[in-house]
């Protein structure tokens, strides 16, 4: 009975201590993800044993699901649909062409490296590692050395690709572990889209439209104070997720859809409204990274193979960079810019949540798939954390030299 409280006590004290020195730490190459994952690994059951997280605990599953729900909502809400529609070049290419190419290439390579996987299992692994993490890419998207357009487009890509990958993941899971094996794939997918995705879209859009209108009306009538106005957005995001789950839909689809609609309905004041929800999402993200470090170390130390290490390395390089270069073919971007955008696609929170979902599905290949995802995330956290500032400066210098030569 006391173990969960002990975990939360340790986590709360650690986060408080981190806030006291956060400014100094943020000036170093050590990202928040590295710091909190490292703490989780040291304090976890595979090391000191101070934390008792385990990969099958319901509390961990709830934590990562609510974290992704909040982040999907806030990331989607920050996107200006009108601007995205008019930006016919890079974001739409990265999401509409680059993302499918990444999944297809990752599936083919996974099938070669892991011949024991079925094609569906290989596609699951590729889809789980396709989304990029906006928080882990913050060192790049906030770096003034990087051109504004590239920073903005990387931010849009990472904010939307996790939501796009959610229905793909659920489709693959439905095929891999059908509730009724006698159903055809077409019937399974129709059932999935009509139920999980359909209910998710309906709940998310309904809550967002009604919620945004109620909030505007109450704010104009002075019924709502500023502090509670900020809290309401986080509550709306969680309401979208949990209500859709209760009704049999996908809470992640509901959160993503709700965020898109709410953000554009509250466009003039959304930055202020989203601040509280983003802070809540950031806090939950830190807790998730601690849990990831605690649980992930145990899986990696017992199940790591050379095939897993190879796929992790390829996932961060060829599988990510080649589709980005191909989908940006014909644009005014030079090759260094394309390579820069391809490299800075860190894997993070969405992949962690997908790993928990797949492990909970109890597929035959769940454990090697999840171990590969964990290995890739660990490699990404280290590699992208170490290279963000140096490569940003090098890229900026190269672009300045090119401009002078022209």
Describe what you observe in this structure.
The protein has helices spanning 2-20, 22-26, 32-43, 58-77, 81-86, 90-113, 119-128, 138-141, 148-176, 185-220, 226-246, 251-265, 270-303, 306-316, 318-327, 335-343, 349-361, 366-405. The protein is mainly alpha-helical. Helix 4 crosses helix 17, helix 11 (226-246) runs antiparallel to helix 12 (251-265) and helix 17 (349-361) packs antiparallel against helix 18. It starts with a helix and ends with a helix.
Which short descriptors sum up this protein?
78% helix; 406 residues
Question: What can be said about this structure in brief?
Answer:
This protein has 406 residues and is mainly α.
Give the SSE order as H and E letters. HHHHHHHHHHHHHHHHHH
Q: Care to count the β-strands?
A: 0
Structural class: mainly alpha
Mean of pLDDT = 81
Major sheet characteristics = none
Give the helix tally: 18
The gross shape turns out to be globular
Which blocks of ≥5 consecutive residues have pLDDT under 50? none
User: What percent of the residues sit in helical stretches (DSSP H or I)?
Assistant: over 70%
Radius of gyration: 21 Å
């Amino acid at each position: 009975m006391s173990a969960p409280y002990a975990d939360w006590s340790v986590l709360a004290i650690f986060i408080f201590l981190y806030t006291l020195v956060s400014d100094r730490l943020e000036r170093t190459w050590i990202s928040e993800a590295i710091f909190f994952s490292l703490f989780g690994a040291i304090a976890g059951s595979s090391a000191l044993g101070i934390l008792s997280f385990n990969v099958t605990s319901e509390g961990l599953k709830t934590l990562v699901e609510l974290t992704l729900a909040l982040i999907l909502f806030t990331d989607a809400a920050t996107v200006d649909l009108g601007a995205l529609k008019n930006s016919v070049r890079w974001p739409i290419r990265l999401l509409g062409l680059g993302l499918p190419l990444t999944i297809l290439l990752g599936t083919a390579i996974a099938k070669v490296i892991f011949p024991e996987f079925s094609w569906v299992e290989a596609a699951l692994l590729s889809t789980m590692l396709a989304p990029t993490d906006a928080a882990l890419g913050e060192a790049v998207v906030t770096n003034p050395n990087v051109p504004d357009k590239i920073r903005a487009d990387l931010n849009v890509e990472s904010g939307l690709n996790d939501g796009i990958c959610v229905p793909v993941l659920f489709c693959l899971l439905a095929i891999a572990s059908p509730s009724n094996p006698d159903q055809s794939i077409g019937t399974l997918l129709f059932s999935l889209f009509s139920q999980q995705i359909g209910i998710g879209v309906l709940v998310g859009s309904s809550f967002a439209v009604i919620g945004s209108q109620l909030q505007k009306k109450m704010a104009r009538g002075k019924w709502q104070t500023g502090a509670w106005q900020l809290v309401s957005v986080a509550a709306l995001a969680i309401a979208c997720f949990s209500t859709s789950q209760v009704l049999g839909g996908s809470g992640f689809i509901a959160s993503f859809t709700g965020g898109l609609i709410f953000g554009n309905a509250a466009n003039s004041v959304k930055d202020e409204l989203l601040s509280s929800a983003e802070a809540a999402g950031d806090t939950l993200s830190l807790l998730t990274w601690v849990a990831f470090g605690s649980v992930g170390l145990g899986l990696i130390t017992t199940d790591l193979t050379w095939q897993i290490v190879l796929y992790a390395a390829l996932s961060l390089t060829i599988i990510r960079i080649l589709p980005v270069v191909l989908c940006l073919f014909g644009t005014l971007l030079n090759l260094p810019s394309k390579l820069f955008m391809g490299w800075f696609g860190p894997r993070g929170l969405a992949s962690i949540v997908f790993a928990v979902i797949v492990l909970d599905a109890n597929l035959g290949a769940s454990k090697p798939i999840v171990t590969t995802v964990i290995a890739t995330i660990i490699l990404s956290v280290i590699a992208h954390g170490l290279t963000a500032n140096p490569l940003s400066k090098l890229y900026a210098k190269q672009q300045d030299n090119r401009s002078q030569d022209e």
